[in-house]
Recover the amino acids of this structure.
C-alpha cells in the first residue's frame, strides 16, 4: 500500500469517528463566530461583505457569540472523547491524530485570526520592514494606513518583542501577499502551520524514545483545543518556535549528539526567545547525570551546558546580525505585560490593589499589582532552580516542560499559547493520572477565560457563563466518572 493510500485511509478512519465530526462542527461554529466585532478589526475588508449581507447587526453579534461558545464546547468534548485509553476501553480502533487534526481544524484555515489580533501585528511589522522602518524602534502607528489600523489599539504604539527571524518572515509574507493588509495577516498562518506539522511529526517519535504511549502523546498535543485555536486559528509564531524545539529534541535523541539540536534551538530563539531554555537540556538527553553530589560529573555537565547554551546563543546572534535587525527586542520585553490577563499573580495583585485603593493608600493605583508581579517572577526563579536540581540531570524533559509551565503561570501576562510551550512537552514527561486530569482542568479553565473575553468584546458575557457551565459538566463527566491511565508505554529507548 502506497503512502498516499495509507494517508487517505487514515483520513477515512478519522472521519468515521463521530467525535471527529463533532470537532469539525465545533471549528465551523468558531469560523462563523469570527465574523463579529470581537474578532474583526474595524479596518477589515470583511465588513463590506457582511454589510451587503446585512450580517452586521446586534442579532448577528448574538449569533456569532453563540456559535463560538458552542464551538469551544464541542472542541473540548471532542478532545476528551478521542482519548486513546477511552477508545480502547470501548473497543474502538486507534486513530491517526494528524488525520484527526486535519479534519477538525480545516474550517479554521480560512478563518480570520482567532481569539487574538497578533497576526495583524505581524503583518504591520512586515509592512514596516518593507518601508525600511525598524519595528524594534517604533510601533506600527508610525506608518498610518490599513496595516496599522488592523492592529489592536493597545499594540499600535509598542515596539516588537519578537525575534528578528520572526520579523523577517513577516516581511516575506507581506511581499508574498502583494502588500495586501488582510491577505498578509491571513498568510501568517503559513509559518504557524509549519510549526504544527513539526509538532505532529516529532511528538510520537520522541514519545517512543522516552517510553510514552505515542498515540496518547499525539492525542494530548495534536487534538488539544488550545493548539487548534491558538496555533491553527490564532497563527501565533509560538507554533514554529515550539515545532523547531521539538525537532531539536528529536534529533538529539535520535543521533545521540546535541550539536545540531542546539543550532536549531538558536534558530527557534530567533523566532521567539524562550526557546533558548531548550539548549540547557539537550546535553542531558545524551549524557544524563544521576546525581549532583560528584563534583567531577557536575563540572563536566556544566561545561556541556555552557557549550550548548553558547552555541545556541551564537546561532541566535548570527541570525540577528544577518537580518540586520540586531537585538532591539530587548527594549520590548515588558510589552506582553502591558495588558491585564488571567495571570495568577496579576489577578492577586488586582485584588490586593482594590483593597489598597479602598483604603486610600496608593494614589498611583498600581503598586500592589507591580509588587505581586515581582513576587511571581521570584517564585519562578526559585522554582526553576528547584526543578533543575530535582529533574534536569535525570529527567531533562521534566525540567523543560515544567519550567515553561511555571513561567507561563508566574509571568506578568498569561496567554493560553504560552502554556503550549510546556504543554507540548507535558505528555513526554510520563505524567501520572492525577497530573493528566489536572491538565484537562487547566485546559478547560483557559478555554473558559478565552470564551469570557470574547463574549465581553461582543457584549454578551452571560452566554460565556452558560459555556463555562457546559465545560464544567463535560470535564466533570470525563475526569470523575471515567477511568484514566498514565501515558506510559514501552521502556524508553533513551535513558533520561
Amino acid at each position: 500500500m502506497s503512502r498516499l493510500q495509507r494517508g487517505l485511509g487514515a483520513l477515512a478512519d478519522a472521519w468515521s469517528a463521530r467525535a471527529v465530526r463533532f470537532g469539525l462542527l465545533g471549528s465551523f461554529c468558531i469560523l462563523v463566530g469570527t465574523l463579529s466585532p470581537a474578532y474583526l478589526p474595524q479596518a477589515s475588508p470583511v465588513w463590506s461583505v457582511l454589510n451587503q449581507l446585512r450580517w452586521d447587526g446586534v442579532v448577528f453579534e448574538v449569533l456569532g457569540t453563540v456559535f463560538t461558545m458552542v464551538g469551544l464546547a464541542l472542541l473540548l468534548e471532542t478532545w476528551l472523547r478521542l482519548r486513546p485509553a477511552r477508545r480502547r476501553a470501548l473497543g474502538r480502533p486507534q486513530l491517526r491524530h494528524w488525520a484527526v487534526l486535519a479534519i477538525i481544524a480545516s474550517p479554521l484555515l480560512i478563518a480570520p485570526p482567532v481569539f487574538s489580533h497578533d497576526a495583524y501585528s505581524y503583518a504591520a511589522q512586515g509592512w514596516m520592514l518593507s518601508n525600511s522602518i525598524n519595528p524594534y524602534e517604533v510601533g506600527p502607528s508610525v506608518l498610518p494606513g490599513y496595516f496599522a489600523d488592523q492592529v489592536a489599539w493597545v499594540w499600535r504604539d509598542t515596539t516588537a518583542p519578537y525575534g528578528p527571524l520572526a520579523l523577517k518572515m513577516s516581511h516575506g509574507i507581506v511581499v508574498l501577499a502583494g502588500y495586501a493588509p488582510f491577505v498578509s495577516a491571513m498568510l501568517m498562518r503559513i509559518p504557524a502551520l509549519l510549526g504544527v506539522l513539526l509538532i505532529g511529526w516529532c511528538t510520537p517519535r520522541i514519545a517512543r524514545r522516552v517510553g510514552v504511549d505515542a498515540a496518547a502523546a499525539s492525542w494530548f498535543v495534536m487534538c488539544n483545543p488550545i493548539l487548534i485555536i491558538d496555533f491553527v486559528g490564532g497563527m501565533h509564531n509560538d507554533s514554529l518556535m515550539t515545532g523547531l524545539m521539538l525537532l531539536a529534541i528529536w534529533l538529539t535523541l535520535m543521533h545521540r549528539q546535541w550539536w545540531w539540536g542546539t543550532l536549531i534551538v538558536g534558530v527557534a530563539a530567533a523566532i521567539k526567545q524562550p526557546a533558548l531554555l531548550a539548549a540547557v537540556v539537550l546535553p542531558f538527553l545524551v549524557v544524563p547525570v544521576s546525581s549532583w553530589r560528584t563534583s567531577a560529573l557536575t563540572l563536566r555537565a556544566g561545561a556541556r551546558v555552557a557549550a550548548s547554551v553558547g552555541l545556541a546563543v551564537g546561532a541566535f546572534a548570527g541570525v540577528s546580525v544577518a537580518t540586520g535587525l540586531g537585538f532591539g527586542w530587548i527594549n520590548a520585553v515588558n510589552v506582553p505585560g502591558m495588558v491585564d490577563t488571567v495571570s495568577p499573580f496579576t489577578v492577586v495583585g488586582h485584588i490586593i490593589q482594590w483593597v489598597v485603593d479602598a483604603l486610600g493608600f496608593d494614589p498611583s493605583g498600581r503598586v500592589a499589582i507591580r509588587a505581586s508581579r515581582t513576587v511571581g517572577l521570584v517564585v519562578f526563579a526559585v522554582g526553576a532552580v528547584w526543578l533543575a536540581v530535582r529533574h534536569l540531570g535525570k529527567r531533562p524533559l521534566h525540567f523543560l516542560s515544567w519550567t515553561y509551565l511555571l513561567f507561563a503561570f508566574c509571568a506578568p501576562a498569561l496567554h493560553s499559547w504560552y502554556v503550549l510551550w510546556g504543554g507540548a512537552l507535558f505528555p513526554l514527561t510520563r505524567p501520572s493520572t492525577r497530573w493528566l486530569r489536572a491538565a484537562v482542568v487547566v485546559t478547560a479553565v483557559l478555554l473558559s477565560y478565552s470564551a469570557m473575553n470574547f463574549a465581553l468584546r461582543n457584549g454578551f458575557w452571560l452566554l460565556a457563563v452558560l459555556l463555562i457551565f457546559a465545560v464544567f459538566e463535560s470535564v466533570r463527566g470525563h475526569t470523575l466518572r471515567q477511568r484514566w491511565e498514565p501515558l506510559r508505554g514501552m521502556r524508553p529507548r533513551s535513558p533520561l
Notes: The radius of gyration is 23 Å. The chain has 23 helices and no strands.
